[in-house]
Description:
In chain A, 33% of the residues lie in helices and 29% in strands. The first copy, chain A, is an alpha/beta fold. Chain A folds into 2 domains: 7-83, ACT domain (Alpha-Beta Plaits), CATH 3.30.70.260; 89-282, Formyl transferase, N-terminal domain (Rossmann fold), CATH 3.40.50. In chain A, the strands form 3 sheets. A 7-stranded mixed beta sheet of chain A has the order 7-6-5-8-9-10-11, sandwiched between helices. A 4-stranded antiparallel beta sheet of chain A has the order 2-3-1-4, with helices on one face. In chain A, strands 12-13 form a two-stranded antiparallel ribbon. In chain A, α3 (99-109) packs parallel to α8. Chain A is globular. Chain A starts with 6 loop residues before the first strand and ends with a strand. The interface between A and C is medium-sized, with 32 and 32 residues.
Amino acid sequence: MASSSTLIALLHGPDRRGLVARVAGWIFERGGNILHADQHRDMEKEIFFQRVEWVPSQDDAAAEARAFKAFAVTLGMAVCVASSANRPKGALFVSRADHCFHDLILRWKAGEFAGDFACVISNHPDLADAARGYGLAFHHVPVTARTKAAAEARQLRILRAAGVEFVILARYMQVLSAGFLKKFGRPVINIHHSFLPAFTGGRPYQQAHERGVKLIGATAHYATVVLDDGPIIQQDVVRVTHRHSVDDLIRKGRDLEKLVLAQAVRWHLENRVLVYGKKTVVFD
Amino acid sequence: MASSSTLIALLHGPDRRGLVARVAGWIFERGGNILHADQHRDMEKEIFFQRVEWVPSQDDAAAEARAFKAFAVTLGMAVCVASSANRPKGALFVSRADHCFHDLILRWKAGEFAGDFACVISNHPDLADAARGYGLAFHHVPVTARTKAAAEARQLRILRAAGVEFVILARYMQVLSAGFLKKFGRPVINIHHSFLPAFTGGRPYQQAHERGVKLIGATAHYATVVLDDGPIIQQDVVRVTHRHSVDDLIRKGRDLEKLVLAQAVRWHLENRVLVYGKKTVVFD
Amino acid sequence: MASSSTLIALLHGPDRRGLVARVAGWIFERGGNILHADQHRDMEKEIFFQRVEWVPSQDDAAAEARAFKAFAVTLGMAVCVASSANRPKGALFVSRADHCFHDLILRWKAGEFAGDFACVISNHPDLADAARGYGLAFHHVPVTARTKAAAEARQLRILRAAGVEFVILARYMQVLSAGFLKKFGRPVINIHHSFLPAFTGGRPYQQAHERGVKLIGATAHYATVVLDDGPIIQQDVVRVTHRHSVDDLIRKGRDLEKLVLAQAVRWHLENRVLVYGKKTVVFD
Amino acid sequence: MASSSTLIALLHGPDRRGLVARVAGWIFERGGNILHADQHRDMEKEIFFQRVEWVPSQDDAAAEARAFKAFAVTLGMAVCVASSANRPKGALFVSRADHCFHDLILRWKAGEFAGDFACVISNHPDLADAARGYGLAFHHVPVTARTKAAAEARQLRILRAAGVEFVILARYMQVLSAGFLKKFGRPVINIHHSFLPAFTGGRPYQQAHERGVKLIGATAHYATVVLDDGPIIQQDVVRVTHRHSVDDLIRKGRDLEKLVLAQAVRWHLENRVLVYGKKTVVFD
């Protein structure tokens, strides 16, 4: 099966009897082979969620994907279908911190992601040489309060020219405007250096140190127009004590940020994350 | 649905195309409603595993269970089917340590388990009053090397008389013979106080302290004729340092043992654990 | 040494050169034997913290404790000194939930705490029999908005009559007034069922479920006049997924609450927790 | 204090009354300022362990270090004293796997280590360009069963020529001979990809998969003449399920190996690790 590409559908909609059987039956009747099928029911809201991955029998995967979408609509389901043969192209937004930058690129080169990085955009020139050393185009787009609108317009032109389908904010120290998010219209994954919803906004490690918490965290989430409020994909924490200074928290937090962001990116690219409302269902 | 009992099937056998569809279709066609369906494929050995839980349409759940078993055989699957309406009866085997004993009984009384405890059997009389205080029959069955065969025969009589369907070794400090396991013929869950396969046999905390490990563990597994070698259901660890004496490890280990054993018992009673070879598939 | 009682001093004050040597020298010159000495410096605020535990040479430990206090004042240190021979008496405040109640009492009976429980106070009668079964006095003190002042006055009378030196709010579902805390004037340890400062106030598991977090937490802290804002002693988290309902979070949270509260109580009773500002130094 | 270098002593020997006071007194009387002093007593074996870090009053830190060593001998203590002004030089031994290699070098460049890397030695040429891109000398020293003695002799010449004071086996897939370890005579830190003592030897992830464990681990330890048996510095684990193939374990294990090895190297270079027998005391 390693040589066969698969189709992956993410479905959700009002729960009703027989959905599992009807989806599996549709694929089976057309000669497909289901590799994974994972369901979830929100019992309270009576919503059905499913991720199903299969090897289609026919060569024309695009036609099968279109046919499945039409079928899912008849079940009252919202659906998206991806092919494992398509590797989405992404852009990394960075500032000066380089830990998530190196980590994501090294994982990509090690084959951990079902997608590719097309370019790096930064409001600082610091990582230009490193990006180019990895063979990635680097775009320095300075941002000030006065120039933000123009800078975002330039960022959007770069993303479109490169055919970028997702953005990762790898410790990018700027807030993207609602207008940017709307015009881009594709997933933007951010890493926030706290256990959200605790310590939103700036300097979360300083806030954590002042509050005297015994664990610090990191949260990967989809960026939305409300800062640090988007659907959470992954979180983790690490233990700290009174012995740890803010600088220690920052150092320990770097490892957390790398792991949490990389896990979120991997799941996203494997089409394991389904967003509904301000929450996610992660079929891991 | 809270008022309806469900059927839960655990299947496994040679993988082939269409198994998900055929199982789901069989249930759907008979008017059943699938609540959960979770699959796994061992890609290397080409084995298909499934846990499926559904609300049968008809009142006669026992007949539906029988019919499903016959159907599963036609798919080449080994299968067992349980009804959530049946609460299996279990026995606790204990010695002197009481932490898992209290923990399991309090969780049972709090409604955490899909089964019941029928009696307590111990080679020491220490916990007799506590067991009876919880309303449980207590049987003191002393065991020595010389009397072991007779003691096990007595234990088997007690289990049969009480209709016991599973045994939990809640820090029972005796090894059950191969003969006992065979004659009982039902699941026996043991908690071993190490991260198996490290530190098998006696005094694992002493062994861990001597080796200078930085984490200690606990392992819940089905007992088999080879000591500490049965299929692992759940494991967990906790961090220790050079500051911890063997007594500290024992104290910290008690919390681990309670959590790990309780989780294994909960999964077992919810029919989430499928044994194959010396491994488990846990549909959590 | 097991037979000797020890003195334990917790010191803090402005940092200056030679504090470690002067404290150790004072004890050594009087024939004492230091078992543990643990220091911490807040580099930013230039505060020195120390926990030192020693076996005094003389029989009159009370006199040695007084002398040490006088000495510490000459170093500019705030200090408290406890003797391991004194086992403080505590009260458990509970409502209907019984998991922390059973857990704390069973740990106490297993010898895990360097203190004792004197009585149980509850706004509900549910746990009366269980408390008395453990040999503990049980006081039913109903609380309504209208009767709160009188109820708190009665609680204070009970605490004073029993010589209670610390209170544990073991899932007590009432807020203690500022007046109560001031009049009691002793440590009150609370368990909050979230990873503070996230999800303060009521129904934290419901809040966590709505936000879609991937970890839930529990926090043990000293109660202060600001709700859920006191110095944090211990925190921990456990992983959850979209599959977990609010009821699942409540069940999983019970284990967290037990472990986190018990750890905080153990550290408190071993005089390992030093409060300054709204933070703690925990000498574990 | 950031501008001042410190002295760090690691002491151990037979426990006796007054050691804390005498060490602190010695430093205080000579005008030194203790920043950290951490003690441990092995109660069973009556051994005293201490790490003490101080700013010496005089400019001649080397003379103070010599004087402290002479003093410690009068206390019956084994001792080593390091100056924070000396940054030890290390060598990385690698084969083909590059995750620990990149991780350690990026952490070094980020300033996480109190030491430096001088060169990379490998039995394969694969990482030559990457090493040189980081500005590190790369030595390709092929090893076969027949050429092993000559290869180790060449490795030792390289280490001596570069003044190397410690070696890190960053997934180096060769066993160093007892002769090499003896002739080098300096610390060699290895990362083993299992939770030792489980799964020693080759292919530990394959072994873990076959045993069906629910957690996989990694262990950093000092290399000794007995394979995978040296004093453990750090260990950690991560949860796995039946869904994870051996390749998944390898991928998840990479993150563990990076974190565990980096932590061990950081502690080692900060003189926080004291070896005695086959165990370590880690003053973290």
